[in-house]
Write a structure and sequence with these properties.
With about 280 residues, this protein is an alpha/beta fold. Helix content is about 40%, strand content about 15%.
Length: about 280
Amino acid sequence: MDYRVTVTGATGKTGTHVARLGTERGWRVRGAGRRPPPHGEWVPFSWDDETTWKPAFDGSQAAYAVIPFNSPGAPARAPAVIEAAAAAGVGRIVLLSTIDVDHAPPADPTRIAEQTLARLPVESAMLRPTWFLDNFTTGSFAAMTATGELRLPAGDGRIPFVDVRDIAEVAIAAMAPGGPTGPLPITGPRAVDHHEVAAALATALGRQVTYTPVPPAEFVELMAARGFSTEYGWFLAGALGAVADGSFDVPVAGTVRRLTGRDPYGPAEFAAYYAKGLPAGG
């Protein structure tokens, strides 16, 4: 099948797996970004350069859109990029959103991007995952995992963390011809606390990894010492506080099982996969 797709963020957490899975299906995958992706072809693309938008999507039947919030101008440009993809003839667009987007303020960039996509004359899906397990290994808390102690203001709150491989599987299902459309909530198999995540990492890595609940101010100081801004630290502290007090209450979704035929990966499967990819002795 000559099926062409564009994957933005093809070097990122979810996009790398989306590009890999699409290539394995025999699709012609074009990774749109500043540098060549590990899977598929490369087409230069920049959120800051409007002249790169149309060429990145020309000739593609489907697209995967990830808003890079670490790029200052990208969130505000997301609606225009999505519109450019539709104008280039992409008939199926899948957007990486968030589980709590419906509760976000009206000016939230992800919420606006979803609304823009819903208005366009294309088939569309909005992936709404909960928090990534990968944040403990390649994201904001990776340095804590490396030192063997997760110190977070999350109390004993429980959420159904998700493995990004499951997000990618759902993305591929939605990008395929005749795939599901609309909002797609994505979670792990059950809600767990940070103690269980730490224990899974410890078992897989063969070394001590523990979790200790700490006050928000201490957490912000720890993040600042690791190079994160105070503003970002307090943002994370607020989000983790919602886990601690139970206000971030995410029900387990059956999307992964419905679309893949298997249960989503839990902390143990995630940790084992991550450890397997480390160098010997790592």
